[in-house]
Structure formats: C-alpha cells, structure tokens
C-alpha cells in the first residue's frame, strides 16, 4: 500500500518547476507561444487538485511505479520546454518535431489528471475535452489541412484575397459603418452574382481595423443546403480551440455551448461570417442570435429599382436572391416575373423550390438562356455528357478531377492514360461550365497534369445539369441523380422497386440523419456508382451486389468525421469493377474482401481512417489476389503507420502513390519486387526515414516523388540503379545533407524538381549530369503546411 503523502511534495515541486519554465519560455520565444500558453492553462487547471487533499489523494492512490514514472516524465518535460528558445526558426523540421512533443506533453498532463478534472467542475470538464482533442493528433490535423483542402477541414479561417482588387473602397467603408452601428445582431450582404459580395466580405475580414477589434475571433463558414446548425458550431469550436474533433448531441446543446463560450470570452468581440446561406437555413441565423451586450447585427434590404411598391416582406426578397444563387441572369429573369406579384406568389414560388422543384420550372426563359451554353456542346456529345455528369456530386463541394476522369474513362471508353479526359476537363473549363482549382503547380506530364486538381461548379449550373438529366421518364434516364434528406426516400423509388432502370450512372446523396434504410433497386446497367454521405455510420445498399456491370465506384463522406462503413463484403460480388475510390471513411478488417476483385485496376484510399484494417493483409494471410491492379493510391490517411508487406505481391503494379501520410515511417523492404512500377509518389510522408535498399530493383521506374519527406536524411546507394528514371521530385527534403555518388549513373534522368537548398547538392555532380535540368521551385507548400505548428 503506497503512502499517499509520500509523493505529494515531489509531484507539487516538479509541476511548479514546469509551470515556471513554461512561463519563462512564453516570454522568451514566439515560435511555440500558442502551445506553451495552452500548457500553461492546463497546469493552471491542475492546481486546484494539488491544493485539495481529497482530490490529490485520488491521484496518489495509483500504483507507485506509475507515479514515479510520471514525475520523471515531468522532469524531462521541463527540459523539453527549456529547449524551445534553442530551436531555430529556419529549421522547419526540428520546429515540427519539437511542437509535436509539446502537444503530446499537454495531452499527457490532461490524461494523468483526467478523472480528477472531471470531478472538479463542469467548466473544467469542458476545458479538458477541448484540450485533449487538441493533443489527440497533431498529424491528424496536418493530414487534413494538406488538402483535399477545405473538403473536410473544420477550419473557419478567412479565405485569402486575390492580389489586385480595385473599386471596393467605398463599399468597404459603408460595410464597416453598418457593422459598428448599434442595431441588431445580423448583417446580411446581398447583391447579384459577380458583383463581388464574397470579395467585399473577405476584404472586411482582412481589414486591419476589423482585425484590431475582433482579433482571432473572426470565423468564416461556408453553408450549404445540407449544413446543420450543429455542424457550424462544431466548426467554430474546433477552430477556436484548435481541436480536430468536437461533437454536440443536439442543436440545443450546440447553441447552449456556443453561448457559454461567447460569455466566457467576456469583453472580446466575435465576428461570424456565413457564406452562401440558403433560404432553408434561416433557422440557423435565428439560433445564432444571443442576448449578449455588444453582439451586433444589421439587415440589408433588397427592393426593385423601378419605383413600384411591392407589398412583400424584405426577408422574402433576400430569400429570393439567395435562391437565385446570385446569378445575374437568374435575378433579372425571376425578378421580372415576380415584380408586381402578390406576397402569396412569392411565398408559393419559394416553397416549391424548397420542396425540391427546380428553379427552371418557374422560368422557361431562364432555362432556355442557360441551356444555350449546353446546346453549344451538341457537336461534342461526349463533352455534353461530361457536363451532365457533374450533377452527381453534392452542392458546394470540391470534386477531385481524378474522380471525374475515372468516371469518364469507363462511361465513354476513353484512354486510361487520361489524355482525352484531361482535354474534356479543360474544354469545360474554357467554356466557363466549371471552375478548376490547381492544387499543385509543379505537376509533370508523367504523373498527370490534372490528377491533383479540383473542380467546382456554380450552383445553378449544377442544377441545370440535374434538370437536363431528369427530362426523360425515370426508368429510361441515362443517369439517376437521387438526393435523400433524412429517410425521405423518393416516392417513385418505393413504388417501383420491381421495375428495372436503364441508367448507366447512379448517384445517391444522403445527409447526416440518413439511417441507411435502403429500398431495393434494380439497375443492372449501372456502370458508375457514386455514393455521397455525411452520417457517422453508413451501410452500403444491399442492391450493390446485383450491379454486375459496375465498373467504377466512388464512396465519399462529406461530414466532419470519417464515416464508419458497413457491409464492405458486398463489394466482393462486383466481378467487373475496375476503379474504386473510398474517401474519408473508417475502414474495417473486412477490407480483405476488396482483394477478391479480380478485375480491379485502380484502388484509392483518400483521407481514410485505416485503424487495424490492414492487419488482415499480414504475412500470415494469402497473397493479394488483385491480378489486374495497376494503380494504388493512399493519400492523407493520417493513422497509416505501416504499408502492408503484401502489397509487394502485386508485381504488376505500375503506379504507387502514398502521400500525406504523416505517421508512416518505413516502407516494406521488399518494395523492389514491384518490378513493373513506373511511378512512385511519396510526397509529404513527413516521418518516412529512408527508402528501402531494394528500390534499386525498380528498373522500370520513370518518376519518383519524395518531396516534403522531412525526415529523409540519406538516399540509398542503390538509387543509382534506377536506370529508367526520368523525373525526380525532392523539394522540401531539408534533412538531406548529401547525395550518393551513384546518382551519376542515372543515365536517363531528365529533370530534378527541388528547392534551392537541395539544388546545391546536385551542383557537385553538374559535370556528370550536364543534360539534367535542375528545376528550382519555391518551397511555399511546405511553409504553409508548417504554419499549423507555429
């Protein structure tokens, strides 16, 4: 039996010394000030436990070796804190590692005193939960921010401004005047599309005077049709407390916690910007009103310009503007049709739209005007189909260009190399039918110029694609685009479960309240299936097993949390499946069923929680049975620590991409068995220490990307045996101090893409590699990546 008081003085002393060290370093260095302040707050919250014997006694009831070990850890923590001022600003790798250790220190402190903190007060409990979420995984946050971007990030940061903006000064001053006016709590900015509403509001958020008033309490949230109030508050809390996960049970709970947070902020002021608020989302604005002094607001009114009096409420006008998606043409046409109409006409029109009726049913003129852009594609029928396929994805979400290209390859029998699919993508972009966001500007021809791009589409153009795809009777449509809110399955579906459909493309979008209660669906001709979800749990529809002609499957969760995917073994029946992409889902050991897909050619895991799912692919398991798999992609899977050695059984693999996996520290020793590998991408695997020596056996390798692999400090001598290598990307490899002399044997090497620091290493071999182009790129991606730590 441990005497409770034996370790009490030692524990109090070491915690006090740690607190003093933290306070000292906060004053001395700015590099780690944010996390140091958080550790200081943690220690402050622990103090009541040390000074109340009943609580401290609970701590000291633990086994003796546990308490002794914790005291030793605290002594080491003091040394860790004191090293903060030694870490150099320019050494991004050491800065990253040191910050990670500080996060784990904060986590360990909270975990050791967790039970006692829970007993302390409800407010202490709230603090502990927030801080624990922060320390849960630094790299988990990093892998999210490294993009896919914005897709599932909980950040509420204000988007960047474009470089040159003119003509907004007067409007900005007026907006600031109204913001500071003592009136209500909500300021609504509305104007036709293209007038610069978003630019104006972003200018406001970046204004020095505004930032001086609100400081870090400026939150920018984009709202879509399916965004819930809980989701918005989760984003605010996650951003405010720098935590990756934050969850509320109900809207009421979220509202109460938000109001509590705002009251705790005291005199600090808060600015919340909601972008793209739908007419159905007015309740969200109402929930964001609080009886707190200094919480301001204002409402901008919309009215006709011809001087005629319309007896409709201003909120109806604002809702109508929002429903027109800000498109000038829609505002003009719909506005003209409603000018002079009764308030009842306005309300019934809005009600029809909210119930799912297309805006084009209200105005044939608007439909015909917008359709003209699509009619221009008639001489290019495949291009027109590609445009219509864009309606398969949720509103206001980024679409990976590679997803579209995979669809089009199978639907329209295009080249697998992506040349034609890239051309179609660029043609739609040149015709202003979509927006193309460039993720990485240093993409090369070998890896595919558009593979890392993202596509977005104006809301009305998306609705036009859906409307045009819905012209034929349901059983005869080429593409079925279904949206399910809650469990409200379309009536036609429940009534026609026995009738087969002719669609080649099926897209089903569900929200966070969908319970996976599926009805039967006979769609034997479906070649591409797109499942868009938001719920934390999702069961695959049982009718998948009847889709014998399915060639491409895309399953994506657009919620804050990765969706737990059930009934994965259903996929093993898809004998003709060639391309499968799982994005932001939580995998299970049943992933083994994917290995039974004999015709699978491309497999992608994007932002997935791997967990122990790859354990079923251990050495004790049978060799992987994917005889036609040529491309494997694993991106931003933050908890991937090991690549299954069984992957080396897929000797016919041609492209292997393992990127943004920050827990991965080693590759399989047998990597060289992939004798047909042509492209190997390891971008931003920040803990990867080295490349296996067997890499020299990859004689067909033409492209190697190790950029932003911060922990690689040497390259194996066998690198010189890559006699087929043409392009080597290695910017951001700051731990690399020298190159092996064997690089002079890379006879086919054409280009090295690197940062300025790494280019000096190649200068030693300039005479031996005179035909190699050293392309020096700016290291801005790594700089932005590391700002998360700072």
UniProtKB/TrEMBL annotation:
The keyword Repeat applies. This is RPW8 domain-containing protein. Keywords: Leucine-rich repeat, Plant defense, Repeat. Coiled coil: none annotated. InterPro entries: Apaf_helical, LRR_dom_sf, NB-ARC, P-loop_NTPase, Powdery_mildew-R_dom, WH-like_DNA-bd_sf. GO terms for molecular function: ADP binding. Belongs to the disease resistance NB-LRR family. The lineage of its organism: Eukaryota, Viridiplantae, Streptophyta, Embryophyta, Tracheophyta. It comes from the Eukaryota. Residues 1-150 form the RPW8 domain. It comes from Tagetes erecta. GO terms for biological process: defense response. PANTHER family: PLANT BROAD-SPECTRUM MILDEW RESISTANCE PROTEIN RPW8, POWDERY MILDEW RESISTANCE PROTEIN, RPW8.
